[in-house]
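question for whoever is on the cluster today: can someone run the full assembly for these? two chains, 358 residues total. i dont have access anymore since they changed the login thing
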Amino acid sequence: MKSWLKRYWNLLRKPSVHFSLGFLTLGGFIAGIIFWGGFNTAMEVTNTEQFCIGCHEMESNVYQELQGTIHWSNRSGVRATCSDCHVPHGWTHKVARKMEASKEVWGWIFGTINTEEKFEAKRLELAQREWHRLKANDSLECRNCHEFDSMDLTVQDERAARAHSTSLADGDKTCIDCHKGIAHEMPDMSGAAGSY
Amino acid sequence: MNTLIVRIAAIALAGALSVTSASAQDQSLAAPAPDGLRKGGTLHEDLPAPPIAGDPRDVNREVRNYPEQPPVIPHVIRDYQVDRRFNKCLDCHSREAAPGAGAPMVSVTHFMDRNNQVRADVTPGRYFCTQCHVPQTDADELVENNFLPVNEVIRRMREDSQ
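^ ran it for u. tokens below:
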């Protein structure tokens, strides 16, 4: 094993015999662009709505529920689709989330939620996982569009303004603490421990 | 031979009858109908739908018109989920949440079953809020409404008798 590693190490250390320095540097540069661009393009493809609803688990359950909510259609014509809320926008966290998503591929292969009954049975667990994720990152995906600093509390309902100017402002609560079930239906909460 | 003629005559007669009945049907559909809730037009015509009445934004709690009236909802309830799994209204109006949310608690009648026994939580019979409680919009009344609260009726009767 050691001699095997050593052989490759020596190969890497040896100067190139056949290829020019220009070919290696420029070629490496171009290959890097192609690889990096290809990687990011492929990753962005997995962020599209078409990709998400390519599986019937998403298409016939959560996608149907999204339609008709304020995040789907509204008077100003801004739409938040799957990845806007469920995938972090920053690169590092996005890649981390994509790695976590390998478990979702596992679930898809083994049909964990491939019927309505199975999906309903897991609805609470799936929802809680997403609530915990948003709670942990201080509702980062909400705040990509809804910025606290840009909120005019005076045009909000009295009760909303009160909640936003107290609990939200001092960081005691984050968006998802109150705004649950806004883009998908709520699970049966009787199985949830304490206050969800 | 005779039977054949009779048969042909019968078929012709049946055809004529069906034609007349079809045109009569067309006429009845095209006839102008009295204006009901759906104003103007005939059964055949498609009329443009009136614009959807606006949602109320800043409205205060409204006075009830009679004591048993279910209070109307003074806020927007778009996308509120009320089904077997979850009741969004009870997020604020439940017994536990009402004071913190500054919302009126559902009245004790909602906890009573059909035998007037008060139960631990809102009973299934009173669970679906919008069966009785509705938000108000600025829509025009479909029919004229002359309703007066009973105090107003009494006041007018007193005035008339004097």
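summary bc i know u wont read the tokens: Residues 45 and 111 of chain A are 23 Å apart (CA to CA). Residues 56-187 of chain A form one domain.
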